[in-house]
Amino acid sequence: MALPAAGQSPPPVAPPASPPPFDEWLLGLRVEAEARGFPKELVDRALAGVRPVEQILERDRTQAEFTLDLDAYLKRRLTPATVKLAQQMLTKHRTLLNRVEQKYGVPAPILVSVWGLESNFGRFAGVRPTIPALATLAYDPRRSVFFRNELFSALEIVHRGDIELERLKGSWAGALGQPQFMPSSYLEYAQDFDGDGRKDIWTSLPDVFASIAYYLQQHGWKPGTIWGREVRVASLLEEAVLAIPRREAGCRARRLMTEPRPLAEWRKMGLRTTSDVLVPALDLPASLVVAGTRKYLLYENYEALLGYNCAHSYALSVALLADRIR
Question: Which spans in 193-282 are helix H?
Answer without folding.
Answer: 205-218, 238-242, 263-268
